[in-house]
Write a structure and sequence with these properties.
Order of helices and strands: EEEHEHEHHEEEHHHHHEHEH
Number of helices: 11
Oligomer: single chain
Largest sheet: 5 strands, mixed
Distance between the termini: 30 Å
Number of domains: 2
CATH topology of the largest domain: Nucleotidyltransferase, domain 5
Radius of gyration: 21 Å
Strand content: 15-25%
CATH superfamily of the largest domain: ATPase, nucleotide binding domain
Shape: globular
Structural class: alpha/beta
Helix content: 40-55%
Number of strands: 10
Length: about 350
């Protein structure tokens, strides 16, 4: 029996998962609410919360999986990229546990983990216990496929030839799509994290109301800094034209302001993402196309994938909501693949904040 225990601590979610013989038995996530009042993740607070959460989260993951810690074959952990303080907590715990159990450790690239979330196979028991997995269509792409990886820190088009052979063929040259969502939401006075709020309000707004600027970048690369500037200038001009100083005052004068701004912003970001992805798929002749990362939870982006799939005859792969944000299930899956190849990590390896796939 092969049992992989995984730990994810790259940002502000402490997570642990267990895979037994290729089947995901548990996926436990402890989120940190402390950052909401600051409008963003505070690294020092995040690392302290990881220290408090990691032991009970790992213990719960093992109990829900129905396996004893002595049965663990290897410990997988996110080595990076991410917040160094947070990564140090997960890395140190993984090393200590592996040494105590006398089993190997497996380092996982966080971004590769997001891509490999498409290969997670949850058990029937886990599906029954997880509302977001019930009724979800779980299917796995075959190699090669394209994956649009979109999150708060990354916007990339990845050519996936194998689980351990990925090439970034396009990426943002400045800001990420998720960052654009969150920062524009903050300008609108929406709570943190802003992405889900924009998604919610966009459903009630007019996506054609505000024509924001779109970049003209060659190849498959992205840029979102100009869009953020266009968004900010649109609001600035509206404030001036209406003789008010705050967003709340402007919203009182302009009906459906936040809803229309959110809908227009979301539609623009999705159009930017999908146009480059379409170009890459057509140029490479690839019909299997996936999406991954935190922004893949956005309902507009998910619908765009379905629409493009029908229009261009793609076979699309959209992860269940449980596997979109940071979670240990994706780390566990990557760790399982590496375990089968005996691709282990030296005990002296340290975490890293930034890297390419």
């Amino acid at each position: 029996m092969t049992v992989i225990l995984a730990i994810e601590s790259s940002c502000d979610d402490t997570s642990s998962a267990v895979i037994v013989d290729g089947i995901l038995r548990s996926n436990v996530i402890a989120s940190q609410k402390v950052h909401e009042e600051y409008g963003g993740v505070v690294p020092e607070l995040a690392s302290r919360a990881h220290q408090m959460n990691i032991l009970p989260v790992v213990d719960t993951a093992l109990k829900r999986a129905g396996v004893a810690k002595e049965a663990v074959s290897a410990v997988a952990f996110t080595r990076g990229p991410g917040l160094l303080g947070s990564l140090l907590v997960g890395t140190s715990f993984a090393k200590g546990l592996a040494l105590a159990l006398n089993v190997p450790i497996i380092d996982v690239n966080h971004l590769q983990g997001h891509v490999l979330a498409h290969f997670v196979e949850p058990s029937d028991e886990l599906i029954a216990q997880t509302p977001s997995l019930q009724g979800a269509v779980i299917k796995h792409p075959s190699f090669p496929f394209l994956c649009l990886l979109v999150s708060g820190g990354n916007s990339q088009i990845v050519l996936v030839r194998a689980y351990n052979n990925m090439e970034i063929i396009g990426q943002t040259i400045d800001d990420a799509a998720g960052e654009a969502f969150d920062k524009c939401a903050k300008v609108l006075g929406l709570p943190y994290p802003g992405g889900p709020w924009i998604d919610k309000l966009a459903k009630q707004g007019d996506a054609t109301k505000y024509p924001f600027a779109k970049p003209n970048i060659q190849g498959y690369d992205y840029s979102f800094s100009g869009l953020k500037t266009s968004f900010l200038y649109t609001l600035r001009d509206m404030l001036k034209a209406n003789g008010v100083e705050t967003i709340d005052e402007l919203a009182a004068k302009v009906p459906n302001l936040r809803e229309d701004m959110c809908a227009s912003l979301q539609a623009t970001i999705i159009d930017i993402l999908m146009r480059k992805l379409k170009k890459a798929a057509q140029d490479l002749g690839i019909k299997q196309v996936a999406v991954a990362g935190g922004v893949s939870a956005n309902s507009g982006l998910r619908q765009a994938f379905l629409d493009y799939g029908k229009r261009f005859h793609w076979e699309v792969f959209i992860p269940p909501f449980s596997f979109t944000t940071d979670n240990a299930a994706m780390v566990c899956q990557a760790g399982y693949f590496k375990y089968l190849d005996h691709d282990f990590c030296a005990i002296d390896k340290v975490p890293f904040a930034k890297t390419q796939i």
